[in-house]
Amino acid sequence: MSKPAPLPYRALHATHGGIWIASGDGEIRESGRGEAISAAAETPMIVLNAPMTGQRLGYPELSGLDLLELFAFVHPARFTVPTPAGIARTLGLPVPETDEDAAMLLLDAARHLLETLQWEGWGEREGAWSAAQNLFRLRWPWAATVAERIAKPDKAERWLFSRLPEWEDQPPRPTPRTVTMDEHRAVDRLETLVGEEAERREGQRDYARAAARVFDPRPAAGKPNMLIAEAGTGIGKTLGYLAPASLWAKEADGAVWLSTYTKALQRQLDRETEKLFPDAAERREKVVVRKGRENYLCLLNLEDALQGGFAGRAAVLAQLVARWAAYSKDGDMVGGDLPGWLPTLFRRAGATALTDRRGECVYAGCPHYRKCFIERSARAAEGADLVIANHALVMIMAERRREDSSALSRIVFDEGHHLFDAADSTFSAALTGQEAIELRRWIIGPEGKHRGRRRGLSARLMDVASYDEAGGAAIEAASTAAAALPGDGWLGRIAEGIPLGPVEKLLAAVRGTVFARAKAQDAGYGLETEAAELDGALIAAVSAAAEALEALHRPLAILRQRLEAVLEDAPDWLDTQARARIEGAMMGLTMRGQMLAAWISLLARLGGPADPDFVDWLAIDRYEGREYDIGLHRHWLDPTKPLAETVIKPAHGLIVTSATLKGGEDWNAAEARAGAPHLDFAPERFEAPSPFDYAANSEVLIVTDIKKGDLPALAGAYARLIEAANGGTLGLFTAIARLKAVHARIADRLARNGLPLYSQHVDPIDTGTLIDIFRDDAHASLLGTDALRDGVDVPGESLRLVLLETVPWPRPTVLHAARKLANGGNAYVDRVVRARLAQAFGRLIRRKDDSGMFVLLSAATPSRLLTAFPEGTPVSRVPLDEAVARVSARLSSVADFGQQAGMPNPVENS
């Protein structure tokens, strides 16, 4: 291979503070927007995150040589923070100190990555040459430069699908043995995990003792050992429950399901288990992260994309995802080792099409079934000691398995303050246009001009139809009945007043009723109204739609029965693959049968007496004025009621735990969130206050002179306070519109002072990556909404000021109004707000040496809400000028200290 020519490219670095262009001869100069856009349009330039750079330039269609794409090719499945400083740390290059240095860093990093392709010890070489050839044909901007640096291998490289290992079937796991936990052994296990040099924490030891009792044999059916535990930040509750959980799993040969609400805590739990199982091979066997199938790469979708199903930029993404899949730990595309920033580089070019988000899996009919990431994860979980999952999946699995030997017997619900919200979503029903058309497609398959691998029931179960006459008739009847569901173009037809079929006509009537009754129609966002006092036309549409859904539900139920009969009969053609395919179809039929039953039940009650257990409403979903869905919704008034019946009572032992489980309230509030009022026994309680000195290390300021609705004053307050803290600020908003407006007013000003500002709903990058960037730079600040109020674990050097624009009152939805009425009126609202304030404050002090301030820009903050903050925390009502002075005096030097001391590894704190 001849020596490659020097890079002929220039680098373009743009921030809110300015634009810089660097060339290979070492020249760096500042540029204007117009010049930079012209230069980028004339010749390809090296950029870091083209969508974000284009946004900074006001030129969203910017393209070029994206350094992040090159990084993803060279180091698939490797973490990096996607900033100049982050790339420099990952590659071992000098960290740039100025924006001018950052521009040159892009060139240096590109050279480093390209030189890596020629290193003898490059660990990700296999498959690179073939991928480079494919990318060259797709005209990937880096392809020619990359291809000339990779030597052609002596023999053909293994394709991704031949590299991946196959999973193997295992015999069913026996029922866990009956063992009684010894508290002393649990504490000994805990001390082994924390290490001899760790500080002795009595609260953590007490927690482990209390948690150990949960794993004892339950006293009676329907009465599990249940612990409701509030363990303040710093107690170390994760290891506190992992110690007895891992001990029980080993001695009883059973699985403990560890459930979280956020992906951040899932990653943290996964890392903590390294202390339990230091050997990587043993850990892979003993610990499994389990997620819904929509999180994982679908190999059949990827194969379709690689073989021409994707075009243009989407095809490039598919090639880079294939590179990643060959080195991925588990194929998790959402929160796993796929860089969160990678799909955002391609805007909307196909990332979601690479997962199974529409329930179209063909199971054993797939040629990659034995290598499927999803199936491997599910099977690995069956033999694991610890299964890390999320609340929704645990609830679904518990409901499905409660009658068989694989029922979830031991569960730990961490982030238990979100158990109510997770149950609210899991046990709800929504008959919407989007849900209905997906059901139609699952039954009928592609229609009209639509092509692709999606197949309907008749295609997936062709052998069953030819073997079993009754099964074939049920498939045909279901396909005929599914034609009554909305089809392609349903939303446009309804808007034009020409709906087709009974369900589309129902949705049209729903839309008309919502527009007739809903307020604030010009806001551009969703509209809703109660499903009460409905007119005759809507009731007639409900009746016709219910008949159509019942006509569909019957043949689907019959088909499931016929599939069971085929499995029992076991004809000659029923090999292992066919059996797995039929079992997969039965699972799909069960899920969709339950969904149809919920829809029919929802429609049956409309127009009649209200069911006191449920809240029903009609809604139009909109985003920035554009309608994207219409439907009817039903939620439990108290979703912990089905939680208690389907998850808690069938279990043998449960822990519901959180640092803010009570949310500034009493134990009744905590038990209500955990479903205890619906149990006929009293759960055990445990409480350990945080060991942190909040009185000395934190302060709450309520600013009294920012007028509500004064957007310039609000933006000015955010800018002044962020400057006073020298960055390191998490700014939380209750409205996206205000967030965007404040960001637009202050981003340039802060950047000129060396304080980068990032934002949800503004920056074209995923939330997880925004948090990684925020964590990595002590001078950066981050604006966001509710998603950032929880699950953000950022050290004190990077997060030292939390700003709230106003009191986080709940939105006045139909559901909220019903719950308020049923739970004490304004007292219920106060409980919700106190919980939100406690969660937001909880972002601030995460470690013993953290110091921070919490500022609420709302003069009208009621004093009754202030119990949300930890006891002893100083609270003051002050004007903005004094708040700025106090923040500056306390926090402005923290960032510089953190940078001098060396920022923590972002992977270890993600």
Description:
This protein is α/β, with parallel strands linked by helices. The chain has 37 helices and 23 strands. A seven-stranded parallel beta sheet has the order 8-9-7-10-15-6-16, with helices on both faces. The model is unreliable at 897-910 (pLDDT under 50).
Number of strands: 23
Determine the structural class based on helices, strands and strand pairing. alpha/beta
Q: Round the mean pLDDT to the nearest integer and report it.
A: 90
From the alpha-carbon coordinates, what is the Rg to the nearest angstrom?
Answer: 29 Å
Query: Helix share of residues?
Result: 40-55%
Percent of residues in β-strands: 5-15%
Largest sheet: 7 strands, parallel
The largest sheet has its strands arranged as 8-9-7-10-15-6-16
Distance between the termini: 41 Å
Count of helix runs: 37
Residue runs with pLDDT of under 50 for 5 or more positions: 897-910
Shape: globular
How is this fold's topology laid out?
Elements lengths: L9 E6 L2 E5 L5 E4 L1 H10 L2 E3 L2 H8 L7 E2 H8 L9 H8 L7 H18 L11 H10 L5 H5 L12 H4 L19 H12 L7 H11 L12 E7 L5 H16 L3 E5 L2 H14 L3 H7 E3 L9 H11 L3 H13 L15 H5 L27 H11 L2 E5 H11 L8 E4 L5 H8 L2 E4 H12 L12 H4 L1 H6 L1 H14 L7 H7 L4 H17 L9 E4 L5 H34 L6 H30 L8 E10 L2 E11 L3 H9 L4 E6 L8 H8 L9 E5 L5 H4 E6 L7 H15 L3 E4 L3 H17 L4 E3 L7 H10 L4 E4 L16 E4 L9 H9 L3 H16 L10 E5 L18 E4 L1 H12 L2 H8 L9
Parallel strand pairs: 1-4, 4-5, 6-15, 6-16, 7-9, 7-10, 8-9, 10-15, 17-22, 17-23, 18-20, 18-21, 19-20, 21-22
Antiparallel strand pairs: 1-2, 2-3, 11-14, 12-13, 13-14
